[in-house]
Amino acid sequence: MPDFLIARDTAAKHNRKSLDAIEGQGTNYARQPITVKAATGQLLPAITYRVINPKPALKTSPEYVGYIVRGLREHGVAEEYAAKVKAITIANNPTIAAEIQAL
Fold first, then answer.
1. How large is the C-alpha radius of gyration of the chain?
2. Which residues contact residue 73 at a Cβ distance below 8 angstroms, ignoring those fewer than 6 apart?
3. What total number of domains does the chain contain?
4. Mind listing the pLDDT tens digit for each residue in 67-86?
5. For the chain, does the N or the C end have fewer beta carbons within 10 angstroms?
6. Is residue 2 very low, low, confident or very high in pLDDT (cuts 50, 70, 90)?
7. Same domain, yes or no, for 41 and 17?
8. Do 82 and 66 have their domain in common?
9. 64 and 54 in contact (C-beta within 8 Å)?
């Protein structure tokens, strides 16, 4: 994802919706820098969004997981990792198991 699409102000200059807006940064989630390890072992800077006020009954939606799984596949991530994401989702919200398995 290009850096300009992360913050609201820079994305707006390109008539695009930012990741901050999509994730509810500042309201539902807080943007946080992290370090991730590439398959090559290289450490890379990245960002994640952490929930500000956790709610025990909050469930993941099939649409959201669909974006994640499609993105993983588009970027050549191993299918085993997509399967783990799907399994975590189903554990979080068993009522959408069939929809998630179909992804």
1. 15
2. 79, 82
3. 2
4. 899 989 999 999 999 999 99
5. N
6. confident
7. yes
8. yes
9. no
The two tokens of residue 73 are 């596949």
Q: Which residue has the tokens 């989702």?
A: 89
Q: Both 38 and 72 in a single domain?
A: no
Q: What is the pLDDT of residue 60?
A: 82
Please check whether residues 37 and 79 belong to one and the same domain: no
What are the Cα distances from residue 10, in Å, to 2, 5, 33, 70?
11, 7, 18, 25
Chain segment 9-65, per-residue pLDDT in tens: 999 999 998 989 988 888 889 999 999 998 899 999 999 999 888 888 778 889 889
Residue 66 belongs to what domain range? 59-103
What pTM value is reported for the model? Answer: 0.63
Residue found by looking up tokens 């198991």 in the block: 97
